[in-house]
Specification:
Elements (H helix, E strand, L loop, with lengths): L6 E6 L2 E7 L4 E7 H13 L3 E2 L14 E4 L7 E4 L6 E10 L2 E11 L2 E7 L5 E5 H8 L6
Antiparallel strand pairs: 1-2, 2-3, 4-7, 5-6, 7-8, 8-9, 9-10
């Protein structure tokens, strides 16, 4: 699979090195390949949240489904209908540079994006499916 523009990856032992570029700035980051795979999986398992609308109790839309969350005993996870633009988020610890990498999967009308925010505050945006398919052979399952 071809890498998305501005995104490249390599595997060294059990570590994943990413080179992220927006055409002007470039950053190299390193994390555990397993932790990166787990972060991507978390983006898939959580319900989407509307980025701008935080409904008040009296305005809450009817949930589409309610399920017990196995990771939090006794806590129900409610999936609300997706808004015009919704997202899920996950984070993982980088070891070079040290700090947190924030991953957001943003789903809007006709687009499915992966936004990566580095510890330095840089934000890189890529097509989510292209990144996932490109990384599939490199990441543990």
């Amino acid at each position: 699979m071809k890498a998305p523009p501005g995104f490249s990856a390599r595997l060294a032992d059990e570590n994943l090195g990413l080179t992220l570029s927006d055409g002007i700035n470039e950053e190299k980051i390193w994390a555990s390949a397993l932790e990166f795979a787990e972060a991507l999986a978390r983006l898939e398992e959580h319900p989407l949240h509307d980025e701008y609308d935080f409904p008040l109790e009296f305005q809450s839309p009817e949930p589409e489904a309610t399920a017990l969350d196995a990771s939090l005993p006794g806590v129900a996870r409610v999936a609300y209908p997706a808004a015009e633009e919704s997202y899920t988020a996950a984070q993982l610890e980088l070891f070079d540079p040290p700090g947190l990498l924030l991953l957001r999967k943003i789903v809007g009308e006709g687009e499915n994006l992966l936004e990566l925010t580095t510890p330095q505050g840089s934000v890189f945006v890529f097509d989510y499916e292209q990144v996932r398919n490109y990384l599939r052979p490199l990441l543990p399952r």
